[in-house]
C-alpha cells in the first residue's frame, strides 16, 4: 500500500481501521501526524519542524531518539530477548538503581504502564490491610483501572456535584462506593474523610506534585498531614510518581518534599520512551506481592520487565547521573517560567505561569489554582487561541488548558529564548 499523500489522508486511513484513528485518548483533536523526532524537535508529515514541549506526555526526558538509549536497547534485543523464565536481563540492576535513589523503595516490581502500576498498588494495599476502600484526590488521574478511574472527569464540575463518579463509560459503577474523593489541598476535608472512613481505607493515593490538572503543588503541610493520617489509621500511602518520578528528580518528588510514601507507582521518564513502569515500596508491603496465592496480590505479565525496556531504563538512569541532566532541566525550566512571566506582565494577559523543574503550565486566570475546580476555570477560549498561535509558530504543547508541558534535556537555552518570543505573540493572540 502506498503512503497517504498528506496528513489528512493519514488520519482518514487510520480512522478507517482504528477507533477515532488513535489508540490513546489524548491523541485526538490534532491535524498533525508526526513522522520524525530528534533531540528537542519533532517533524510532521509535511516537513514542518516543532520544538516539542509535550514529550509524549512525559517519557521523553533525555531527548528524542537518544542514540545511547537506542543502542542499549538494540544490544539487549540482540543478546537475550524476552524469555518468560526467571529474572530478566537487567532487572536486578534496574531495581538496585531505583532502590538506591528512591526513599520509599526497598523493593521494586516492573510492569508496562502507569495504569498497571497503580492497579498493582491497589491490590497490594488491599492484600496487606484486608480493607477495600481507596482515598484519592479530585482531578488526579491515576490511569484507567476501575479502582482509581474515579473523580477526575473534566465533564462534571458543577458545584456540589458528587466527586466520586467514574471517569468514563464501561467502568464498573459499583466500584465508586469504595472510592473516597477529597478536594486537593483541603486539609479539613481530608481529616473528615479519615474520621469517617479511616478504618475501612486500604490506601490513599496522591500525586506528590499534581500534574493531572497542570502544575499544582501541595499546600505547606498537606502531604505531611496525609502521611500522618495514613500512619495513624494504618492506611497505605501511595504516591503516584508516574509523572514526577525520574523527572522532578531522579529519586522522584518524594526525594524533594521529604514525605516518604509506603508505595510508589512510577513509569514514563524512567525509560526515555520505552514502555516500562513499576511499583516500588517498603519491604513489609512488597512482601504481599506473591505469585498465585489466594491471599497475596499477584503480579503477572508477559511483557513485564522486558529486557529492551530494562536496557532503556538502565541506560537512561545512568545518563541522568553521569550528565547531571537535572541541573539542565531545572535551569531551562526556570528560564522558561521567568520568560513567560515577563511576557505575561508585558502583554497584560490575564494569565499566570507556574511549575517545577522542567515542567510548567500557563493558566488563563488571574490567580494560580490550588485545586481541580480552580484549575478548570482557566479560560478555554483564550487558551485555544494561545495554543493555535504557538502551534502555527512551531511550538508543540498540549491542546487543553490544564495540560502540563515539559522540555527535555536536549532543549537549548536558544530554543527556550525563541519559544518565549513565540509565547509573547501567542499571549497577544489569546487576548485579541
Ligand atoms: N498516573 C499519572 C499521574 C499519570 O499522569 C498517568 C498518565 O498520564 C498515569 C498514572 C497512567 O500512566 P500510563 O499512561 O502509563 O498508563
From TrEMBL:
UniProt keyword annotation of Transit peptide present: no
Superkingdom classification of source: Bacteria
Requisite cofactors: pyridoxal 5'-phosphate
EC category: isomerase
Keywords carried by this UniProt record: Aminotransferase, Isomerase, Pyridoxal phosphate, Transferase
Keyword Isomerase set for record: yes
Coiled coil (residue ranges): none
GO molecular function (one): pyridoxal phosphate binding
EC number: 5.4.3.8
Cross-referenced PROSITE patterns: AA_TRANSFER_CLASS_3
Family membership noted in the UniProt record: Belongs to the class-III pyridoxal-phosphate-dependent aminotransferase family.
Protein name in the entry: Glutamate-1-semialdehyde aminotransferase
Species in which this protein is naturally found: Nocardioides simplex
Amino acid at each position: 500500500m502506498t503512503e497517504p499523500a498528506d496528513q489528512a489522508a493519514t488520519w482518514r486511513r487510520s480512522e478507517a481501521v482504528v477507533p477515532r484513528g488513535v489508540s490513546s485518548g489524548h491523541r485526538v483533536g490534532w491535524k498533525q501526524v508526526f513522522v520524525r523526532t530528534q533531540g528537542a524537535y519533532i517533524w510532521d508529515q509535511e516537513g514542518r519542524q516543532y520544538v516539542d514541549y509535550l514529550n509524549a506526555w512525559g517519557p521523553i526526558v533525555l531527548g528524542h531518539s537518544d542514540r545511547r538509549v537506542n543502542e542499549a536497547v538494540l544490544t539487549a534485543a540482540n543478546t537475550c530477548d524476552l524469555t518468560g523464565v526467571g529474572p530478566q536481563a537487567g532487572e536486578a540492576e534496574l531495581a538496585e538503581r531505583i532502590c538506591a535513589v528512591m526513599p520509599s523503595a526497598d523493593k521494586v516490581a516492573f510492569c508496562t504502564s502507569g495504569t498497571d502500576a497503580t492497579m498493582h498498588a491497589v491490590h497490594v494495599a488491599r492484600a496487606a490491610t484486608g480493607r477495600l476502600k481507596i482515598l484519592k484526590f479530585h482531578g488526579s488521574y491515576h490511569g484507567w483501572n476501575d479502582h482509581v478511574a474515579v473523580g477526575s472527569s473534566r465533564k462534571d464540575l458543577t458545584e456540589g456535584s458528587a466527586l466520586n463518579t467514574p471517569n468514563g463509560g464501561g467502568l464498573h459503577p459499583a466500584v465508586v462506593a469504595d472510592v473516597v474523593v477529597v478536594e486537593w489541598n483541603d486539609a479539613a476535608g481530608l481529616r473528615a474523610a479519615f474520621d469517617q472512613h479511616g478504618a475501612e481505607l486500604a490506601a490513599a493515593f496522591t500525586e506528590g506534585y499534581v500534574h493531572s490538572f497542570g502544575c499544582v503543588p501541595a499546600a505547606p503541610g498537606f502531604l505531611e498531614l496525609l502521611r500522618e493520617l495514613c500512619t495513624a489509621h494504618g492506611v497505605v500511602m501511595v504516591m503516584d510518581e508516574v509523572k514526577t518520578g525520574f523527572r522532578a528528580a531522579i529519586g522522584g518528588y518524594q526525594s524533594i518534599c521529604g514525605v516518604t510514601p509506603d508505595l510508589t507507582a512510577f513509569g514514563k521518564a524512567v525509560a526515555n520512551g520505552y514502555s516500562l513502569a513499576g511499583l516500588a515500596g517498603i519491604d513489609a508491603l512488597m512482601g504481599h506481592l506473591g505469585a498465585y496465592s489466594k491471599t497475596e496480590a499477584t503480579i503477572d505479565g508477559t511483557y513485564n520487565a522486558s529486557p529492551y525496556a530494562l536496557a532503556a531504563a538502565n541506560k537512561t538512569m545512568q545518563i541522568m547521573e553521569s550528565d547531571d541532566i537535572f541541573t539542565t532541566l531545572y535551569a531551562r525550566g526556570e528560564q522558561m517560567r521567568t520568560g513567560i512571566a515577563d511576557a505575561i506582565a508585558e502583554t497584560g494577559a490575564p494569565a499566570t505561569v507556574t511549575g517545577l523543574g522542567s515542567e510548567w503550565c500557563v493558566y488563563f486566570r488571574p490567580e494560580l489554582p490550588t485545586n481541580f475546580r480552580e484549575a478548570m476555570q482557566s479560560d478555554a477560549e483564550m487558551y485555544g487561541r494561545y495554543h493555535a498561535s504557538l502551534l502555527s509558530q512551531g511550538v508543540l504543547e498540549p491542546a487543553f488548558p490544564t495540560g502540563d508541558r515539559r522540555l527535555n534535556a536536549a532543549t537549548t537555552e536558544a530554543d527556550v529564548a525563541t519559544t518565549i518570543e513565540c509565547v509573547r505573540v501567542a499571549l497577544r493572540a489569546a487576548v485579541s
